[in-house]
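Dear colleague,

Thank you for sharing your sequence with our group. We've completed the structure prediction you requested, and as agreed, I am returning the results in plain text so they can be pasted directly into your records. Please verify that the sequence below matches your submission; if there's any discrepancy, let me know and we will rerun it promptly.
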Amino acid sequence: MGLTYADAHGVILYRNRAAAQHPSPQPREIGINIRDCHAQPESLKKSDEIYADFNRGRKTPHHYVSARTGIKELVTLVPIFKDERFSGCLSVVHPLELKGSTRTF
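Please find the predicted structure tokens below.
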């Protein structure tokens, strides 16, 4: 699973090896703002809405399915709070299909 952590302003502070090896048309390096990772206006709008939810205090994760790379993946965005203030977001990307396999989950 790919794990990425971005602070409350959207700056990527951590990526595990799976996230770093994940194909992406946009840069997703440490130090990049997640807003720069969303080239499509619809994707950027959704990302902004999710962060706005978390900044308003939403404590439950956002989930969606992405097929951007041609493989369906479940993306879970988990808000992290410190002293009741939104401090960042953990993104967990889990493949729903295995490449080269007919089995799906």
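Summary note from our side: DSSP finds two helices and five strands in the chain.

Kind regards,
the structure core
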